[in-house]
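Hi, here's the filled form for the chain we discussed.

Project: internal
Contact: R.S.
Residues: 779
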Amino acid sequence: MLPDLPTLLLVRLGVDALIAVAFWGQMRRYPGIGGPGWWSLGAVLSIVGSLLMMARIGGGNAFAAGLAGVMLFGSHACAWIGLRAYLRMTMPWRTLTALLALQLVLQVGLAMRGDDPSGHQMVYALTMVVLAALVLYDLLHERTPGLAPEYRALALLTAFELALLLAVSGWVVFASRALDSVAAGFILVFLMTKFLRVLLFSALVSLRLRQEADQARLAMAERAADSRALVSNLGAGVVVFEADQHIVSANRAARRFFGWPGDSDDPGSLPQIPDWQLLGENGARMPRHEIPFERVLASGQPVSDVVAGIRTGDTGELRWALCNAYPENDAIGGLRHVVFTFVDITALRQMQQQQRALEQQLAQSQKMEALGTLAGGVAHDFNNILAAILGNADLARQDLAPSNPARQSLHEISSAARRGRELVRQILAFSRQQPLARTPVCPDTIVTETCSLLRTAIGSNVQLVKEVAPNGHAILADPTRLGQVLLNLGTNAVHALQGRAGRIGFRIDAVGLDDPALPPALQEPCRRGGAGAVRIVVSDDGCGMNDATRARIFEPFFTTKGVGQGTGLGLPMVLGIVEAHGGAITVDSRLGEGTTFTLYFPAITDKPPAPETAPEVVFSDGGTMAPIPSDEPSPPAATISVESPAMSEESSAAPAHILYLDDDDTLVFLVRRLLERRGYKVTAVCDQQEAIDAVRAQPQGFQLLMTDYNMPGMSGIDVAREVLSINPALPVAVASGYISDELQAEAAAVGVTEVVFKTDAVEAFCEVVARLVSPPRPA
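And the returned structure, exactly as it came back:
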């Protein structure tokens, strides 16, 4: 026994109201799912259609039946639109509009012709067949991999509804009557399918929520994996601690930094650190309240940019890191972990230390350069004074009889002046303003000569050892200056023994281009030469030096000896000569353990000529040591013999006319007297323009122009240029205490005959003048 039609319509109204409310709530809760809103609207349209059907049963006109059909069709259309929105398909607005327009036109048309229930039912059933077919088509063409059971069940239900609608259409067509007699049965069946559809739609919502949850979990897992991979492969170290300093995890950079074994993420493979022992930037142990981990625990705030030193590995190697730490809290604000991040700045710290060392070296170099410039200027003026003293003393001694007691005083004056001149030479060597006669030489020859000289001055209890590597390279050097360097270092070694038995060693070997011992400053010159470097090592096992003394040994006038025992210019002179040769020097010394000086010189491939005589090695009394004591008295200084050279082959020839120019009137007076005693005619002036005017007045009247180089206003080169423009055949000599390659090149370009080193200009002056005035005849 079926319930009557009004009762079923009332039940349908209640069901549609529940459906509208349920799907409205789902739409509000899950706005990302497109279906529930349309399904709720479909339930509302179904309510309106049911009310119109009830009005038609209660005696309403035919328009109520037509509108009821339109509303019920709209309800099913909203269910279809909601399904497509759920499946994220495009909306079929044109198809839907066409079906609604067709439904409306037909229903209104039938209503206008009169009451025709079977016609209304036929229009409704046919349009619903089309709509059901469209729904079934969408379900069967769903592209979801592994179609869920909910989709298959909804497809079966839609197919059943399609069959039911076809049956209704057949009943109306073939039975030729309306469904009023069986309407309750049909409504009951459609009500049951509506229940099933609502359940399936709700299941689809749940399916979508499960799918989105699975996708969210998968995305979270992927993000977590990406985060772990990112943290694991970061160049910065990351260590996660619990509040009790228990290590939870550490990435690869942290493991490498601390020297922890393995590359696993297993926390059990990580060692535990019961006590952080960090060092501050000053190298002292960092107080506990300054440790980043402790600061985060105490304040709960992040800590950033803390430079700390950490002892790592089994060897306790000190490494430096720029550290940061921050708290990781749980949902209620409690501390879960402390994340400790850091960047390895060990290489940066080493570079900073090297930079500071280089800055100190630069400051020392600039100080030495300033002192060298000052010393060179003082030496230049002092050399002129000494030249005047020596020259006038020799002239005065020549004017005295051999038995005159004043000759001994003049001899002492000359000896003192010569010692002063030797000091000037050391100053010039230190300031690198002394010319070098560099030729290819074998260092072992000079070392052998130095050892021979030292052997005569040291006791038998001192072992003198020489080690020379076979097939050694030659170097480009001034043998005399290199001998000064080695003898100075050897003498230092003798004094470092302080009279005790010991060992002094000289060693020569080669240093290859790839040898790490090669100083950086020599790498490029040696690479250009292609022959590496020659290393000369002078060592002793004497008293050694502390750090403070070692830092100052190359400062001029610094000495550890008593007053009168050393000038403090020996090692500065060594440094100046070595660097003037393009070399480098290093010092290794410890107090009570001896000292080692290592000299590096760029090697050359040229073979030096066989030496006819051993190079002259000058004993220097400067440096950090005093001269080696000797029981033999110093030989008296040799006097300058005065012999008048033949001015020409005929004694009646006119004397050569010499023009001498110097801004120092003392030297002008001295040189005029020296040359006039040799029989020359001398015109000596102190003004450059006066010398130029003299040549212009007598272009052929002079056989030689001797001029100083360093003069105010016009230099000697400028004067030579002016004079040679007047008389290109006039020999010109320029005297200077600073002879460089640039000066020689400039002099040669002007046409200067010879550049004379002014330190030796006075004693060898007459010989230079004789050679330039009367050049040797060709054979």
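Let me know if anything looks off before we file it.
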